[in-house]
């Protein structure tokens, strides 16, 4: 059975697989980023459902000598410069031109920056689905012009796409309220945790099981690593360390400030980007997981940490609350004193309290990649079955 043969409408019966092209991400595997992780796992599950999936990736992140396939997924390297604010713009433009030539059944664009080219893709007669991952224009690193372009990309994606997806209820509700179009909520997913007995990675970085706070995120203003380092210093517990996993997308003043603060604060360890067994080991043995970010879409790192049973300390923002972690502790964004107090209490506790099994199982069921792929396929079928011209006309009146 092909990906859509089980749908009853005779007009949708196919002999060939549904051809899907994904665009808007840097690449995969082992490329840092929530959208990249999402696209990688979604592509694998869609292929399992019978789709023919290709992903257009950026040359700086997928070297020339690397494999042109990931399992059954075709990776297509398209040139892009590694320049902030320019990279995604040029790459998406070239990717849309390529899709206009190859004619996939669905062009799936990830993120609001690349979604700026949704009208161009529609002009070429392509069926477009857009996934909104996060309100990128709220990131402090962008100036007025960049934020304006990102907002315009969001508007273009929401108005002109044939199908719209948001990774959280709060994000979908906001888009429906602003643009008056239907948006399907399809969350991020996670795999079953791979609990590790090994401590080789910990030893390499001088970490002790259950005696380090872990954060996993790219080094970026919105993730607020500087707040976390300052709070850790105030908590002042020599037996504990702070393990910061993640790298910077580009050399920036903020990345340099984080590196400097880490060097000057005892117990802070920068681990860089980690994946696979090394990351699983870090989650397995963490004493607590912390993410004090100013805004998120739906952070996969938080979902992963919870799946390993890590106690969590999170910034009090809607996407974190929406995850529904009963055991999570919340602090206001930017409240370093409160964050230090939470860390200090965790460090002083004698027991290593983990999330209970029922909560972890609920999490796994709500964020199962196989179900996420099936729901995404539903959006594809709806986009093929009918256009969204009525919705676009209504949205254009906003």
Question: Which helices and strands appear, and what pairs or packs with what?
Answer:
Layout: E1 19-23, H1 34-48, E2 52-58, E3 69-70, E4 73-78, H2 87-102, E5 106-110, H3 118-123, E6 128-132, H4 144-160, E7 163-166, H5 169-179, E8 184-185, H6 200-204, E9 212-216, H7 225-235, E10 241-245, H8 253-264, E11 268-272, H9 276-285, E12 288-291, H10 300-307, E13 312-315, H11 318-323, E14 329-331, H12 336-348, H13 357-366, H14 369-385, H15 389-396
Parallel strand pairs: 1-2, 1-5, 2-4, 5-6, 6-7, 7-8, 9-10, 9-12, 10-11, 12-13, 13-14
Antiparallel strand pairs: 3-4
Account of the 3D structure:
This protein starts with 18 loop residues before the first strand and ends with a helix. The protein is 41% helix and 16% strand. It is built from 15 helices and 14 strands. It is of the alpha/beta class.
Comma- or semicolon-separated keywords:
15 helices, single chain, alpha/beta, 398 residues, 14 strands, 6-stranded parallel beta sheet, disordered C terminus, 8-stranded mixed beta sheet, 16% strand, globular
Task: Provide a quick synopsis of the model.
The protein is α/β, with parallel strands linked by helices and 398 residues long.
- Helix count equals 15
Quaternary organisation: single chain
Sum up the overall morphology in one term. globular
Order of helices and strands: EHEEEHEHEHEHEHEHEHEHEHEHEHHHH
Parts with pLDDT < 50 across at least 5 consecutive residues = 6-13, 388-398
Mean pLDDT: 90
The Cα radius of gyration reads: 21 Å
Q: What portion of residues is helical?
A: 40-55%
Largest sheet: 8 strands, mixed
Spatial strand sequence of the major β-sheet: 3-4-2-1-5-6-7-8
Class by alpha and beta content: alpha/beta
What proportion strand?
15-25%
The number of strands is 14
Gap between N and C termini: 42 Å
């Amino acid at each position: 059975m092909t990906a859509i043969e089980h749908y009853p409408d005779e007009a949708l019966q196919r002999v060939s697989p549904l051809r899907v092209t994904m665009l808007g991400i840097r690449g995969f595997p082992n490329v840092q980023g929530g959208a990249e992780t999402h696209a990688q796992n979604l592509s694998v599950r869609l292929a399992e459902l019978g789709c023919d999936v290709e992903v257009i990736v950026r040359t700086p992140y997928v070297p020339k000598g690397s494999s042109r396939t990931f399992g059954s997924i075709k990776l297509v390297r398209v040139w892009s410069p590694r320049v902030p604010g320019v990279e995604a713009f040029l790459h998406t433009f070239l990717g849309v031109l390529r899709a206009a030539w190859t004619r996939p059944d669905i062009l799936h664009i990830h993120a609001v920056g690349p979604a700026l080219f949704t009208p161009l893709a529609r002009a070429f007669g392509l069926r477009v689905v857009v996934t909104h991952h996060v309100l990128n224009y709220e990131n402090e690193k962008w100036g007025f012009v960049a934020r304006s372009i990102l907002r315009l990309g969001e508007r273009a994606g929401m108005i002109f796409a044939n199908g719209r997806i948001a990774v959280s209820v709060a994000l979908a509700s906001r888009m429906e309220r602003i643009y008056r179009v239907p948006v399907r909520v399809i969350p991020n997913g996670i795999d079953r945790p791979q609990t590790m007995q090994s401590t080789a990675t910990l030893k390499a970085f001088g970490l002790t099981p259950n005696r380090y706070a872990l954060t996993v995120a790219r080094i970026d203003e919105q993730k607020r690593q500087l707040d976390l380092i300052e709070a850790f210093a105030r908590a002042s517990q020599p037996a504990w360390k702070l393990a910061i996993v993640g790298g910077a997308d580009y050399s920036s003043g903020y990345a340099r400030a984080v590196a400097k603060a880490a060097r000057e604060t005892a117990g802070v360890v920068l681990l860089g980007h980690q994946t696979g067994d090394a990351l699983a080991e870090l989650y397995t043995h963490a004493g607590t997981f912390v993410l004090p970010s100013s805004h998120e879409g739906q952070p996969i790192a938080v979902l992963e940490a919870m799946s390993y049973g890590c106690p969590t300390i999170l910034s009090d923002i809607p996407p974190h609350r929406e995850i529904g972690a009963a055991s999570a502790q919340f602090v206001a964004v930017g409240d370093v004193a409160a964050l230090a107090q939470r860390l200090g209490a965790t460090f002083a506790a004698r027991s290593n309290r983990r999330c209970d099994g029922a909560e972890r199982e609920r999490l796994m069921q709500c964020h199962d990649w196989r179900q996420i792929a099936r729901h995404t396929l539903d959006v594809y079928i709806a986009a093929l079955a009918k256009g969204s011209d009525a919705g676009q006309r209504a949205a254009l009146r906003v």
